[in-house]
Amino acid sequence: MAITQIWSRFGGSIADAPHLTLASFLGHAPSIEVAKQHGIAYPSDADFRSDPTYDPNRHKLDLEKDYLDSKFLVLSVATWGAEALYRIVNTCSLLQCMHHSPSSAHFKRLRDEAASCVNAMIDNRTDELRKKADALHQRCSEEYKPHEKQPDSKAAQAVWYQLGAPWFAIETCRSDLTARDDSREKEPGPSNQTWITRETVWPSRAIDAAAHWSSFNLVNQVLRSTLISWASTQR
After folding, report:
1. pLDDT at 183
2. CA 164, CA 112: separation in Å to the nearest integer?
3. Buried-most residue among 65, 73, 174, 194 (CB within 10 A)?
4. What are the φ and ψ backbone dihedral angles of 2, each rounded to 5 degrees?
5. Distance between CA atoms of 138 and 58, rounded to whole angstroms?
6. Total H helices, total E strands in the chain
7. pLDDT < 70 regions, the chain
8. What is the CA radius of gyration of the chain?
9. CA atoms of 189 and 186, how far apart (whole Å)
10. In this predicted structure, what is the pLDDT of residue 235?
11. CB atoms inside a 10 Å sphere around CB 229
């Protein structure tokens, strides 16, 4: 698999100081100052935009800026690996629960169970929680299965967005992304184009679902603040 331009240039510092470089990339001033003091390089928005791996609009479609910004954010943050992606989907899951009133008690129970499981898994990935996540994945998938051949139908869209970000977060968190690197390269999964593309599918869907019930602008702001808060307190 092809190593990204970003990893070729900044992979060493990202691997050695992941939280500092992530917080700096996201614009956290104290982290930027520490990085400068210690000569730790980190990528900028412009660096990511110069690497086609992180292009949120490869087909040059007429899409809204806030939507594209969200896609660019998740592609970029994926460079810091699984833990960052887990926090993206958990944030989206919680945001949907805050802004969405489900159309039925059934959807609400399943949505909330998924959200609760994801939130518990962020810092405590026990075997029991993994089994629960697998069971919730199955239940959510079964809800959607009767409609999967007509994804644009009202019935399909209802299930897709009612379960939404919590379901997509379960899809992300139930597997160990750090073990899903089938690259023959010596570098870690987030260093290669295929890993970035593959592992951002469900997080991107979680962002889309959360924004469906609020807005992409709000989701983007909350994601950035949440990631900064996490990354800047891990060193």
Report:
1. 47
2. 11
3. 73
4. -75, 130
5. 32
6. 12, 0
7. 1, 176-185, 235
8. 18
9. 9
10. 67
11. 13
Query: 142, 163, 197, 160: which is closest to 93 by C-alpha?
Result: 163
Contacts 24+ apart (CB under 8 A), 128-132: 130/174
CB-CB contact of 6 with 27 (8 Å): no
| Total count of residues recorded for the chain | 235
Summarised one tens digit per residue, pLDDT across range 149-205 is 999 999 999 999 999 999 999 999 987 665 555 445 578 999 999 999 999 999 999
pLDDT at 23: 98
Q: How many CB atoms lie within 10 A of CB 45?
A: 15
Q: Yes or no: say if 232 and 226 are a contact pair by the CB < 8 Å rule.
A: no
**φ, ψ of residue 122 in degrees (nearest 5):** -55, -45
Taking the C-alpha atoms of residue 59 and residue 187, their distance in angstroms, rounded to an integer, is 29
Q: How far apart are CA 71 and CA 56, in angstroms?
A: 5
Supply the pTM of this predicted model: 0.94
Which helix (H) or strand (E) segment holds residue 111: the answer is helix 105-121
Rounded CA-CA distance 176/179 in Å is: 6
